[in-house]
C-alpha cells in the first residue's frame, strides 16, 4: 500500500514584468520662490527701501522749497511774504503771484502790482509794467535798477531804527512808526507827491512820478515774515498792498529779453526729469516686497498670556523701574495715593486732606500735623527718606485699621 502523494504546484511566471516603484519626491518650489528665499534678496529689498527713502526725501524737499524764494508771497521762510499774503486774502484781496510779465500785464489792469525784484528786470519788462493801465505800481526795495523806473532817486541800505511817518499820507499816519530792518531808504532831489519815514539817509516810502509820467511807489521794507510784526509795519504794508481788490505780485527775475513776452525761464529744480518714473517703480517694488514678506509673516494673532503674573511681581517691577529712573516723586505719590484712597473710603474724608488727617489722628492718637505730613508732605530727597515714608504709611494704615 502506498501513501497518497500530494500534488506539487510549480510556481507560475508572471505574465508582465513588475516595474520598480520610484520614490515620491516632495513638490519642488518654483524657481522664483527659491530665488526670493536666497540671502541676496534681503540686500535687494534693503537697497529698494533705501532708494525709496532717498527719492521720497528729495521729493519732499523739492515740494517744501517750491515757492520759497525771497519776497515770495508763497514762502513761509523768514525772508518770504506769506504772512502778508495770508492776511490780505482773509481781508478779501485776491493775491496772484506770477513769474510771467504777460500775466502781470493781463491781470494788473486796475489792480495793485507789486514788483519783488525790480532791479532784475529787463528794459522791455520795465516798459511793459509802466504801461499797465490804471495800476498801482509798488516797487519793493529797488536799488541799482531804480533809474529805469524813476529819475533822480538814490537808494541806500538801512539798518532799521523806528521812524515816525512825518507825512500826511493817511495810510502812513494810521500805521504810525515803522522799522525797515535790512531794507532800503530813498533820497531824491526831485519833487515827490508823498515822502514818509525820513531818516538821515532818505525816506522809507516815496510816491513820485516815473519816467513815463505816471506815479509809482517805492517801499523800503517791512513786508517779510520776520519784519511785518515790528512796530507799524503790518498796518503800513497791508494798507498799501490791500487798497484794491486784486494784488498781482510779480516775481519775474529776468535780466533781459527771453522770447515772446519776455517771460522768465522756469525756476531750476533739484530733481531730474525722470524722478517721477523712478518713484513709481520704487513704490511698485516696495509693494511686491511687502506682499512677499507679508505672506510669510501671516496675520497678527492675539492670544492670552500663558501664565499669571503675581501682584507682588508687579509691585517689585514698578519699584525697580522707579528706582532706575530716580522717580522718587512718582513713587511717593503712588504710595500716598493708595493709602489716602483706602483710608478715605474707610473714614469718608477722601476729598478733604485736613479732615482725613484729623480723623486719623483721633483714631490713632497721633498728632494731626504729623499725620498730614505723612500723607501729604513734601517729596523725599533720597531713597532712605522714600523708604522711611513707605514704612510710616504702612504703620499709619495698620494703626488706623486696628479695631
From TrEMBL:
Keyword flag Protein transport: no
Region (Disordered): 1-26
One Pfam family, short name: DUF4350
Coiled-coil regions listed: none
Ranges of biased composition (kind: Low complexity): 1-22
Keywords of the record: Membrane, Transmembrane, Transmembrane helix
InterPro entries in alphabetical order: DUF4350
The keyword Transmembrane helix is assigned to this record: yes
Record-annotated membrane-spanning stretches: 43-64
Domain spans labelled DUF4350: 74-241
UniProt protein name: DUF4350 domain-containing protein
Amino acid at each position: 500500500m502506498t501513501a497518497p502523494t500530494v500534488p506539487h504546484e510549480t510556481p507560475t511566471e508572471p505574465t508582465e514584468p513588475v516595474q520598480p516603484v520610484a520614490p515620491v519626491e516632495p513638490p519642488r518650489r518654483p524657481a522664483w520662490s527659491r530665488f526670493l528665499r536666497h540671502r541676496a534678496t534681503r540686500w535687494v529689498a534693503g537697497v529698494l527701501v533705501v532708494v525709496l527713502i532717498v527719492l521720497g526725501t528729495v521729493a519732499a524737499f523739492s515740494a517744501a522749497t517750491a515757492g520759497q524764494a525771497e519776497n515770495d508771497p508763497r514762502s513761509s521762510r523768514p525772508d518770504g511774504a506769506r504772512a502778508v499774503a495770508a492776511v490780505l486774502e482773509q481781508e478779501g484781496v485776491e493775491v496772484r503771484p506770477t513769474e510771467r510779465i504777460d500775466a502781470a500785464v493781463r491781470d494788473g489792469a486796475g489792480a495793485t502790482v507789486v514788483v519783488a525784484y525790480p532791479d532784475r528786470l529787463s528794459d522791455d519788462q520795465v516798459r511793459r509794467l509802466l504801461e499797465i493801465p490804471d495800476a498801482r505800481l509798488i516797487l519793493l526795495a529797488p536799488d541799482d535798477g531804480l533809474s529805469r523806473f524813476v529819475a533822480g532817486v538814490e537808494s541806500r541800505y538801512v539798518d532799521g531804527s523806528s521812524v515816525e511817518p512825518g507825512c500826511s499820507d493817511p495810510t502812513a499816519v494810521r500805521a504810525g512808526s515803522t522799522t525797515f530792518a535790512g531794507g532800503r531808504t530813498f533820497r531824491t532831489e526831485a519833487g515827490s507827491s508823498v515822502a514818509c519815514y525820513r531818516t538821515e539817509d532818505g525816506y522809507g516810502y516815496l510816491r513820485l512820478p516815473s519816467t513815463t509820467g505816471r506815479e509809482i511807489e517805492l517801499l523800503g521794507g517791512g513786508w517779510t515774515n520776520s519784519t511785518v510784526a515790528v512796530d507799524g509795519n503790518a498796518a503800513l504794508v497791508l494798507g498799501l498792498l490791500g487798497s484794491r481788490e486784486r494784488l498781482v505780485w510779480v516775481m519775474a527775475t529776468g535780466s533781459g529779453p527771453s522770447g515772446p513776452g519776455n517771460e522768465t525761464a522756469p525756476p531750476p529744480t533739484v530733481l531730474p526729469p525722470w524722478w517721477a518714473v523712478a518713484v513709481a517703480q520704487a513704490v511698485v517694488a516696495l509693494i511686491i516686497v511687502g506682499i512677499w514678506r507679508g505672506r510669510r509673516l501671516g496675520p497678527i494673532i492675539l492670544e492670552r498670556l500663558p501664565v499669571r503674573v503675581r501682584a507682588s511681581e508687579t509691585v517689585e517691577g514698578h519699584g525697580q523701574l522707579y528706582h532706575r529712573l530716580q522717580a522718587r516723586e512718582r513713587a511717593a505719590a503712588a504710595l500716598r495715593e493708595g493709602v489716602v484712597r483706602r483710608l478715605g473710603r474707610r473714614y469718608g474724608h477722601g476729598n478733604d486732606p485736613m479732615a482725613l488727617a484729623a480723623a486719623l489722628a483721633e483714631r490713632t492718637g497721633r498728632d494731626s500735623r504729623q499725620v498730614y505730613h505723612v500723607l501729604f508732605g513734601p517729596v523725599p530727597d533720597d531713597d532712605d527718606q522714600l523708604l522711611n515714608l513707605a514704612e510710616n504709611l504702612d504703620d499709619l494704615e495698620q494703626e488706623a485699621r486696628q479695631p
